[in-house]
Write a structure and sequence with these properties.
This protein is mainly β and 219 residues long. The protein has one helix and eight strands; from the N terminus they run H-E-E-E-E-E-E-E-E.
């Protein structure tokens, strides 16, 4: 819900700025920076934390076809104190910390009017830390789940200039992911317990037709 409110506030600001810009005549001014948000966060279709921002920097302002340096940063934290019942009273607290960063490059392939087709590559790192502490009568327990993911994306995108400053971009990706999991738990229940530590690593590949739907503001 928080990321939706953040997106709505950001989008409102962009629309106001875009309306003012749309009333002006086209200018030859070149904007080097672009910053925005991913609309897919509204429907939880991306893997980034609740609060994340996307940016682009134009490397060759005088060239016919643009080349951009891309970056994305994300952060999220939430804590919970909850009470559940499973035969006996269970009071437990938990916390979830996530952060992510990405760096990449993109270059225009075809430009026609306000539209452009581009390709690019992006390398990203995600860190996920989930902790839960249990308090069960005379026993205490914990669960610690750490996950890290390194991803390489190949991108194909379509960009449309809504106004001189506002852009809408839809991206498709193919990707390779290296994931590492660490689970450490010492939890007691009436029916038994779970004690131990486990490490695992996997490599995955994926095709994502809707990698990002970006709304960006240039300045």
């Amino acid at each position: 819900m928080r990321n939706q409110l953040l997106f709505i506030c950001f989008l409102t600001g962009l629309l106001v700025a875009g309306k003012v810009t749309a009333q002006e005549q086209d200018s030859v001014e070149v904007y080097r920076w672009g910053i925005g948000l991913d609309a897919l966060s509204l429907v939880d279709k991306n893997s980034y934390p609740d609060y994340s921002v996307f940016g682009r920097y134009l490397l060759n302002p005088n060239a016919e076809k643009s080349t951009f340096l891309r970056f994305r940063l994300g952060y999220g934290y939430e804590a919970l104190l909850d009470t559940a019942s499973s035969g006996i009273s269970l009071d437990h607290s938990s916390s979830l910390l996530r952060y992510a960063l990405a760096l990449g490059i993109q270059r225009d392939l075809v430009i026609k009017g306000k539209s452009s087709l581009y390709t690019g590559a992006e390398l990203s790192f995600h860190d996920f830390r989930y902790k839960r502490d249990w308090d069960i009568t005379d026993h205490t327990g914990y669960e610690n789940n750490y996950q890290q993911r390194l991803s390489l994306y190949g991108l194909l995108g379509y960009n449309y200039k809504l106004t001189g400053r506002l852009n809408l971009s839809l991206e498709t990706s193919v990707s390779v992911h290296y994931k590492k999991y660490h689970l450490d738990e010492d939890v007691f229940f009436e029916s038994g317990g779970r004690i131990g530590e486990n490490w695992s690593e996997i490599i995955q590949s994926r095709f994502n037709p809707f990698h990002q739907l970006l709304i960006t503001y240039n300045f």
